[in-house]
Amino acid sequence: MTTAPSLEISGLAYAYPDGHQALFGVDLTVGRGERVALLGPNGAGKTTLVLHLNGILAGGVGSVTVAGLPVEKRNFAEVRRRVGIVFQDPDDQLFMPTVREDVAFGPAAAGLRGAELEERVQGALEQVGMAGFADRPPHHLSFGQRRRVAVATVLAMRPEILVLDEPSSNLDPASRRELADVLRSLDVTVLMVTHDLPYALELCPRAVILSEGVIAADGRTQDLLCDEPLMRSHRLELPFGFDPRSVHVA
Amino acid sequence: MGAGHAHKLYRHGHSPVHRLPPHCKLAAAFAFVLVVVSTPREAVWAFGLYAVLVAGVAAVARIPAGFLLRRLVIEVPFVAFAVLMPFVAQGERVDVLGMSLSVSGLWGAWNVLAKGTLGVAASVLLASTTELRALLLGLQRLKLPPMLVQIASFMIRYGDVVTDELRRMSIARRSRGFEARGVRHWGVLAKTAGALFIRSYERGERVYLAMVSRGYAGSMPVIDEVTATRTQWAYAAVLPVTALAVCLMGWTL
Amino acid sequence: MHVPDGFINAPVSVAAGVVAVAAVGVSLRGARRELGGPSQAEGSGGERTAPLAGLVAAFVFAVQMLNFPVAAGTSGHLLGGALAAILVGPYTGVLCVSVVLLMQGILFADGGLTALGVNITVMGGVTVVVAYAIFRGLLKVLPPTRRSVTAAAFTGALVSVPAAAAAFTAVYAVGGTTDVPLAKVLTAMVGVHVLIGIGEAAITAATVGAVIAVRPDLVHGARGLHTPLKLRVGGELVDAPAAEAPAPAAHRSTRKFWLTGLVTALVLAGFVSFYASASPDGLEKVAADKGIDAKVEDHAAAGSPLADYGVKDVEDPRLSGGLAGVIGVGATVAVGTGIFITVSRRRRSDELTAASTAPPAAG
After folding, report:
1. Which of B141, C45, C239, C292 has the most crowded Cβ, counting Cβ within 10 A?
2. Fold of the CATH domain C10-35+48-356
């Protein structure tokens, strides 16, 4: 069990009820402690894939296991504790009246109460540097702060794998860097869905490209970003003036 | 709505009224208004006493009279209605300043004005001494169905978000030179409302996904629980019980 | 229309409270079904109720702030009951409007605490149920097109507002605290609210039309229409040609319905104008001044939601009152014309449908 990878997807295919097929056999393994960027053009099926990781979407073929546990209906409660998804719009994620209650929502749904719950909440908020904001309503926070609280809501569940959907979108440069610092400091497996190639390069040693419903490439982020024909064929473009070769990645 | 603008109805404070548990205050306000409404309108002095009681609570809560009075403006439409009553009601008539007025209409106007004003004053006091979040917890504690409390809670959380969207759409409209001037432009405004509905509904779906992703299975975990001691209940009961005594006197005298 | 404390006596307020509690209880159950949603992996559905109804309630609250300018600086806004019923279903509609009223009562002192029962029963219950019943009933007899949905939404909303006014009058008849003669209250209330209803109807119909054009699947009241409507051509939703010509019987009954509606409306209009002309000074004044009441109310909810709640309305009463008086005279004419236009438009669309379905029938 302890050696099982954080995430193992094999042969995953899915079509929406309206007949539109989004995934055509995805195979992906993410080892424990890895930070992997999931790149791909719009409509490649990234969000669909993410919603399979905790069983919100299901019913196609193929399998998903999280740290050895298959994503099946009988395991949903545990799977959803293990897979922490941070959605793109923090306003969707922060649905409770105060930051504290929002961060407590996940662990409380899992049955935690009292001092233990409080400790989880404080711990998670400290991890993202938002400990002083517990009693604020989410609406009073800046966008960057809300995004970090959204990460905390998921961290409070002590997930096996953290899944971030476009974590850098709409962030100003300072918030962007703060979030990067937070993510780097976490000791947790990360799967980051993004269009932001420099951010992927900065945070994730490994990257995969999802294109037309399959994993089209898998390798070192720097290698992928430097492969111009590959990038172009999947509608991935580097920002003007950004040269991935010139970046030193640890 | 409320939350985003720090719930301007709420006046931060640490008075004994602020400190009372929300469900006690809710219950007290309801009971008080019910008592007021049950008081016979002929007992004019009773309403005077009620007003003194409300003023007393406001003083204890350190709510300035100006604040309270300003918020009473909400009543204006019904003042207009009440003023009308003596003219249209039937029955015996009296001459006041040369106008023929219905006696029962006068009583009716007085009745609506007095009770309505006291009712508004009670709700204003409640809202200005209780935080939004606490009000919801109080309602939950008073056995309002949890689903209803959840809906109210989502409404308050997202009221701001939705209102902001509406504002942004209006700015976008105006930036393109559109100014709604009359009935001709309703189509455009209705499209705005339609788009707003779609956005709200879709956000609801996304919120649901976010909830499910964190282990939601149909019921909200109860995290905060408000409790009240016997003493607190007793304090809260002072207002309605005193009012009840006044009311009973009003019926017997 | 938010009733304050003291307007209805205590026993009737409490009774209305019981009715409201029952209505909300029933709606809580029904809303689970309506918002269940088809396709989630676990499917049980009821758990979607809270977030979806909450967002719809937030929408209703927000949309009440959207100002619809009428003329000469006056404006109205949507009450939202009919719209909510048509968009998300009657149960959820009742639930959302009730939550909005509850919050308005507690937070803004808009509507008395003891009058909550009356307010929820009348504005949450009657408006929504009447609007939805008429809407569904019309859809049954009209051909299944989007225009029918819009027309049905218009009629449902149009009737729901005076129906709520009538319901309020009924409550007033039982537990009113003043002895303004009932007939006067009824005429004034219904008369004014027919006017408000016209605005409500126009906005509701246009909004439903706007939603149906983009996301027809989200319009609860039109769910039966999906199958023929969902054709994706070049990424845009396009009307599918009607699978079969609507049965002629449906046409006849439709026309009969409209005819009946027209006659009823004319009789109603005649009745209202009879009363209005019977006592020209007294009654029209009531109508006009109650117009103030209704108009000012509109404004209270129309402005900025919080601090100015109820401040903006002070400047307007005289103006809107006078206007209401002017409009009052033209009301009957307007209703008649409106119905005439709707009927003739319907007839034209009937002809169109007939024309478009004719060739395949011939070939």
Report:
1. C292
2. Arp2/3 complex 21 kDa subunit ARPC3 (1.10.1760)
